[in-house]
Amino acid sequence: xxxxxGVHRVRRKLASGKSRYHFYAWRGGTKFWIDxxxxxKDHDFHVAFAEAVERPQPQVLMIPTMxxxxxxxxxxxxxxxxxxxxxxxxxxxxxxxxxxxxxIFEERGSRGEMNNWRAQWxxxxxxxxxxxxHAVRVLNWAVEEGFLSEHHCNKLPRLYQVDRSEVVWTPxxxxxxxxxxxxxxxxxxxAACETGLRPGDLIKLTRAAVELTPxxxxxxxxxNKRRRLAHIPITPALSEVIDTTPSDRILxxxxxxxxxxxxxxxxxxxxxWRDKVGLSRDLRLQDCRGTAATRLLxxxxxxxxxxxxxxxxxxxxxxxxxxxxxxxxxxxxxxxxKLAKAKGGGI
Length: 347
Description:
- By secondary structure, this protein is mostly helical.
- The chain folds into three domains: about 10-55, no CATH class; about 65-145; about 170-345, Intergrase catalytic core (hpI Integrase, Chain A, Orthogonal Bundle), CATH 1.10.443.10.
- It has 14 helices and six strands.
- Strands 1-2-3 form a three-stranded antiparallel sheet. The protein has a three-stranded antiparallel sheet with strand order 4-5-6, with no helix packed on it.
- α12 (about 305-310) crosses α13.
- The radius of gyration is 27 Å and the shape is elongated.
- The termini are far apart.
- The relative contact order is 0.08.
- The mean pLDDT is about 85.
């Protein structure tokens, strides 16, 4: 027996590997039946269809339309790179659920469907988690905007676990780079270790970010990721980087030819020289943030100010600084004394 004219059938794969079929009165319309077979023969199936067709047919928000609306909204990612990543994953999400209305995520079973979709990236835990992160973000937005009453995909289990809090650039690591690397790499490493800025913020630094204070100078930077305003003390080492920037350059950090750096080139350039000088640890440009936390503590910032700047918890900031002191024997005593004062007897 053929399906009634107009019925839209959607096949969903279950975690068990079996299939389940969802039936809608029309494409994007009211769901009126769920079955394990593609062509139900049950009399109640036809009764349910008839009742669904008789109901008013409100305009239904389909998932691809919801994604398009989100990507055109003020809630979308602000930075070019973040938006490109967000768009890539959400278009994949929309393509997979192209024939489904957004309201399917108000059903508890949708959590399993979400997990089935992102399971195709199980070979890459980071991509697996990224798929879920972006999809949940658009569902949260849909709830906030009133397009959905709720969804059941919060706190999805994650596969990717990484903790680089104990990976920091020590004075000896920096000395090894400074002894052999070209000037542009040395300047990049110094600025990263003295400011704690992410690569995307480092490559945009200009003299316009320098402000005078009653006791010296500081950098005033609106960070790219969180759009927060950060005020960073200019240490003597950072001061040298700023003051030796050629007067005809706008950017403080450039590539070997004096041109703009990209995030990839900055990270890759430092990685290449890390390997050339024989540093055995997997040090990355991002790992300079742990070193910078200690520099900022030495410059007089409180733990809460450091944590806010880094986007960390106060406890995490204290743990990172403590680890830095442990692997930098020359600085252990002075850093630990300042850290104890900053904690004030507790975090």
